[in-house]
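Minutes, project check-in
Item: structure for the 247-residue chain
Input as provided by the requester:
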Amino acid sequence: MRSWVAPVCLALVAACGAEAPPSAARTPTPFDRATAGTITGEVRVEGAVPAMAEIRFGAFGECASQHPGPVPLGDLVVHDGKVANAFAYVKDGLGDRVFAVRAEPVVIDQAGCLYAPRLAGAQVGQAVRFVNGDPLLHNVHGTPAASPGWNVSLGRQGAVREIRVDRPEVPVSVRCDLHPWMQGWLGVVDHPYFAVTGTDGRFALNDVPPGDYTVAVWHERLGTQETRVSVPSRGTAAARFTLTAAR
């Protein structure tokens, strides 16, 4: 194993400088929050849902030993036709409004040789904190198309690295090169109106200025879909999506 671990580690050391600096402070566009509304939504799937593949840990016994039984890949979680782990966000309609970047970091763990959560959302310039929860070496290799990528090493349990993504992009792939099944995703937008669906397939975007918007969803297996909604003052707009399982 040393023959391939050593070159990877050297590459990680060389890439540590790819961590993006914090974004400059921005002055948020004011609006009357007493008029804000909510976008609620649900993501469903039609058609026969294929079973998820089982992770084959192979020679990585230190990963297999952390799981008492079979581990599904986690790329298509559906309960009663409702889709978990879909990224929902306002794609258009906010104009040139500027929003404060959330101060709290997005936290993504590497636990049991899996990304937890598998899918997360962040604002442009918000800290994304990667944590190594395992007693073994991981790396975090992000490959955005619109921003500088990163490849950082988390060499011990409890190791932490933070990155920031410079530009909006849905999705950004995040992998661990040492464990090829370890896939994670980031949805990055330049506003706070995004969410990841839960096991009930639902999401809510709160504190939205009144107006007309395009709301989009992205799912790693089921693709993308958009719909138009009108958010009334102090009211609620519904955005429902039905994605199609591949045949």
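Outcome recorded: Helices lie at 2-15, 61-64.
No further action items on this chain.
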